[in-house]
Amino acid sequence: MAYDVEKTDEEWRAQLSPEEYAVLRQAGTERAFVGEYTDTETEGTYSCKACGSELFTSTTKFHSGCGWPSFYQPITDTIEYIEDVSHGMKRVEVRCATCGSHLGHVFPDGYGTPTGDRYCINSISIDLKPASTD
Protein backbone atom coordinates (compact mmCIF):
# COMPACT_ATOMS: atom_id res chain seq x y z
CA MET A 1 0.00 0.00 0.00
CA ALA A 2 1.22 3.52 -0.77
CA TYR A 3 1.22 6.02 2.09
CA ASP A 4 1.39 9.81 2.14
CA VAL A 5 4.56 9.53 4.25
CA GLU A 6 7.02 6.93 2.99
CA LYS A 7 10.61 6.49 4.10
CA THR A 8 13.29 3.90 3.59
CA ASP A 9 14.04 1.45 6.37
CA GLU A 10 17.30 3.34 6.95
CA GLU A 11 15.42 6.64 7.34
CA TRP A 12 12.96 5.11 9.85
CA ARG A 13 15.85 3.63 11.85
CA ALA A 14 17.58 7.03 11.96
CA GLN A 15 14.40 8.80 13.11
CA LEU A 16 13.13 6.32 15.71
CA SER A 17 14.75 4.82 18.80
CA PRO A 18 15.35 1.05 18.62
CA GLU A 19 12.30 0.47 20.85
CA GLU A 20 10.07 2.77 18.77
CA TYR A 21 11.29 1.12 15.56
CA ALA A 22 10.51 -2.37 16.92
CA VAL A 23 6.89 -1.40 17.66
CA LEU A 24 6.08 1.08 14.88
CA ARG A 25 7.89 -0.54 11.95
CA GLN A 26 8.09 -4.22 13.01
CA ALA A 27 4.66 -4.55 14.70
CA GLY A 28 6.12 -5.24 18.11
CA THR A 29 4.32 -4.66 21.41
CA GLU A 30 5.59 -2.82 24.46
CA ARG A 31 5.18 -4.52 27.82
CA ALA A 32 1.86 -3.98 29.57
CA PHE A 33 1.56 -1.28 32.24
CA VAL A 34 4.88 0.43 31.40
CA GLY A 35 3.77 2.92 28.74
CA GLU A 36 3.80 6.65 29.33
CA TYR A 37 0.12 7.13 28.43
CA THR A 38 -1.49 4.06 30.01
CA ASP A 39 -3.05 6.02 32.89
CA THR A 40 -2.77 9.57 31.54
CA GLU A 41 -5.85 11.74 31.90
CA THR A 42 -4.37 14.85 30.25
CA GLU A 43 -6.70 16.40 27.70
CA GLY A 44 -5.35 16.69 24.18
CA THR A 45 -4.70 14.94 20.89
CA TYR A 46 -2.66 11.79 20.35
CA SER A 47 -0.66 11.56 17.13
CA CYS A 48 1.53 9.00 15.40
CA LYS A 49 5.07 9.13 16.77
CA ALA A 50 6.47 8.28 13.33
CA CYS A 51 4.72 10.91 11.17
CA GLY A 52 2.76 13.23 13.46
CA SER A 53 -0.66 12.41 12.00
CA GLU A 54 -3.45 13.01 14.54
CA LEU A 55 -5.08 9.71 15.52
CA PHE A 56 -7.13 9.95 18.74
CA THR A 57 -8.42 12.57 21.14
CA SER A 58 -8.46 12.32 24.92
CA THR A 59 -12.27 12.50 24.83
CA THR A 60 -12.32 8.92 23.49
CA LYS A 61 -9.68 7.56 25.89
CA PHE A 62 -10.78 5.34 28.78
CA HIS A 63 -9.29 3.10 31.47
CA SER A 64 -9.73 -0.51 30.37
CA GLY A 65 -7.21 -2.04 32.76
CA CYS A 66 -5.54 -3.91 29.89
CA GLY A 67 -2.11 -2.29 30.40
CA TRP A 68 -2.07 -0.07 27.33
CA PRO A 69 -3.82 3.21 26.50
CA SER A 70 -7.36 2.45 25.33
CA PHE A 71 -9.60 4.49 23.07
CA TYR A 72 -13.06 3.70 21.75
CA GLN A 73 -12.86 5.66 18.50
CA PRO A 74 -10.15 7.16 16.28
CA ILE A 75 -10.31 10.48 14.51
CA THR A 76 -12.08 9.82 11.17
CA ASP A 77 -10.02 8.05 8.45
CA THR A 78 -6.74 8.06 10.39
CA ILE A 79 -6.50 4.32 10.95
CA GLU A 80 -5.82 1.41 8.62
CA TYR A 81 -7.18 -2.02 9.60
CA ILE A 82 -5.21 -5.22 8.88
CA GLU A 83 -6.24 -8.79 9.69
CA ASP A 84 -3.67 -10.28 12.09
CA VAL A 85 -3.57 -14.04 12.58
CA SER A 86 -0.25 -14.16 14.46
CA HIS A 87 0.22 -15.74 17.90
CA GLY A 88 -2.49 -18.33 17.25
CA MET A 89 -5.40 -15.88 17.32
CA LYS A 90 -7.41 -13.73 14.94
CA ARG A 91 -7.18 -10.00 15.69
CA VAL A 92 -7.39 -6.69 13.86
CA GLU A 93 -4.17 -4.71 13.77
CA VAL A 94 -4.43 -0.92 13.57
CA ARG A 95 -1.88 1.14 11.70
CA CYS A 96 -1.49 4.83 10.97
CA ALA A 97 -3.18 5.45 7.62
CA THR A 98 -0.62 8.16 6.79
CA CYS A 99 2.62 6.20 7.21
CA GLY A 100 1.63 2.58 7.84
CA SER A 101 3.18 2.40 11.30
CA HIS A 102 1.88 -0.22 13.73
CA LEU A 103 -0.12 1.25 16.61
CA GLY A 104 -1.78 -1.76 18.27
CA HIS A 105 -5.04 -3.67 17.86
CA VAL A 106 -8.77 -3.04 18.06
CA PHE A 107 -11.04 -5.43 19.94
CA PRO A 108 -14.86 -5.50 19.73
CA ASP A 109 -15.20 -6.39 23.38
CA GLY A 110 -17.48 -3.66 24.59
CA TYR A 111 -16.21 -2.24 27.84
CA GLY A 112 -19.41 -0.18 27.84
CA THR A 113 -18.01 2.27 25.30
CA PRO A 114 -20.28 4.15 22.86
CA THR A 115 -18.82 2.15 19.94
CA GLY A 116 -18.30 -1.20 21.68
CA ASP A 117 -14.65 -1.11 20.56
CA ARG A 118 -11.37 -0.98 22.48
CA TYR A 119 -8.40 0.35 20.53
CA CYS A 120 -5.46 -1.00 22.53
CA ILE A 121 -2.56 1.27 21.52
CA ASN A 122 1.14 1.12 22.40
CA SER A 123 2.19 4.28 24.26
CA ILE A 124 5.52 4.18 22.45
CA SER A 125 3.74 4.59 19.10
CA ILE A 126 1.97 7.85 19.97
CA ASP A 127 2.67 11.37 21.23
CA LEU A 128 0.26 13.50 23.25
CA LYS A 129 -0.18 17.18 22.45
CA PRO A 130 -1.95 18.64 25.50
CA ALA A 131 -4.97 20.84 24.87
CA SER A 132 -4.38 24.57 25.10
CA THR A 133 -5.19 25.94 28.54
CA ASP A 134 -5.87 29.55 27.51
Describe, in short, the structure shown.
The protein is mostly beta strands and 134 residues long. It has helices at 9-15, 18-24; strands spanning 44-48, 54-57, 61-62, 70-71, 79-84, 91-96, 102-107, 118-121, 126-130. A hairpin with a 6-residue loop joins strand 5 (79-84) and strand 6.
Task: Describe the model.
The protein has a single domain (9-130), classed as Metal Binding Protein, Guanine Nucleotide Exchange Factor, Chain A. The termini are far apart. The relative contact order is 0.25. It contains 2 helices and 9 strands. It is mostly beta strands. It is globular. The mean pLDDT is 93. The strands form 2 sheets. The chain has a 6-stranded antiparallel sheet, with no helix packed on it. The chain has a 3-stranded antiparallel sheet with strand order 2-1-9, with no helix packed on it. Strand 6 (91-96) and strand 7 (102-107) form a beta hairpin. 10% of the residues lie in helices and 30% in strands.
Map the helices and strands.
Elements: H1 9-15, H2 18-24, E1 44-48, E2 54-57, E3 61-62, E4 70-71, E5 79-84, E6 91-96, E7 102-107, E8 118-121, E9 126-130
Antiparallel strand pairs: 1-2, 1-9, 3-4, 4-8, 5-6, 6-7, 7-8
User: Mean pLDDT score, rounded?
Assistant: 93
What would CATH call the homologous superfamily?
A: Peptide methionine sulfoxide reductase
Distance between the termini: 41 Å
Number of domains: 1
**Biggest sheet, open or closed, and with what strands and sense?**
6 strands, antiparallel
Which structural class is indicated by helix and strand composition? mainly beta
- Please give the order of strands in the largest beta sheet: 3-4-8-7-6-5
CATH class: Mainly Beta
Note the run of SSEs as H and E.
HHEEEEEEEEE
The low-confidence parts are none
